[in-house]
Amino acid sequence: MERRLAVGVLVVLILALNWIFIWPHFSDLGNVKSRIAGARRKITLYERTIGETGKYETLVKKYRSGGEYVPAGDQAINFMRTVYSQAASSGVTISSASHGLTQTGPFFTEQPEGIQVVATDAQLVDFLYKLGEGASSVRVRDLSLWPDPPHQRLEASIELVATYQSQAPSKLNQTAK
Questions:
Q1: Is 149:50 a contact under the CB 8 Å cutoff?
Q2: According to the model, what pLDDT value does residue 29 have?
Q3: Where are the domains of the chain?
Q4: How many helices (H) and strands (E) does the chain have?
Q5: Burial bucket for residue 137 (CB in 10 Å: 0-12, 13-18, 19+)
Q6: More confident residue, 22 or 167
Q7: Sequence-separated (6 or more) residues with CB below 8 Å from residue 91
């Protein structure tokens, strides 16, 4: 009887140890296989991207040489000159202007400017269209419209952004053009 009791206690002890230490790790093999498959997908993606290095270098050269270079000190003046001359030619009245914070990236510098305008709908559309036309670097980031008190014209709050090259084009880039 004592042997049976000892064997029973031993079996219960072995089952308890299996339940504590072995059974929680049954899914580990599946998890490891899943991680290995994910790592292989990443390696394939990285190798493909490394193979396209030449394409990315070409794009970097294109972005560095693209656009108009204006010295940093002249950017705000050039931007406002463009906006005011286009407003005058479109018949839009600029009632106020406010300068935003300049943001500089690796390739381009963004020069924001907020303006308040009064115009008819045709004049406003012409003004906005001609600002973004062609190789212009001026874009509209935000636009709010409302009628003026006599309801004959539109008042608008416009946030414009001009994009300029961050660095002067090098001699090598200028000869490649």
A1: no
A2: 86
A3: 2-51, 72-165
A4: 6, 5
A5: buried
A6: 22
A7: 119, 120, 123, 126
Q: Which architecture characterizes domain 72-165 according to CATH?
A: 2-Layer Sandwich (3.30)
Please report where in the chains the tokens 């961050």 appear, as a residue.
166
CB 90 within 8 A of CB 126: yes
User: Residue 120 and residue 90: Cα distance in Å, rounded?
Assistant: 10
Q: What is the mean pLDDT of residues 64-83?
A: 69
| pTM, full prediction | 0.55
Per-residue confidence (pLDDT) for residue 175, from 0 to 100: 46
Beta strands in the chain (DSSP E): 93-99, 103-104, 108-119, 138-147, 154-165
Tokens 């001609």 -> residue: 130
Across 57-82, average pLDDT: 72
Q: Which one has a higher pLDDT value, 122 or 62?
A: 122
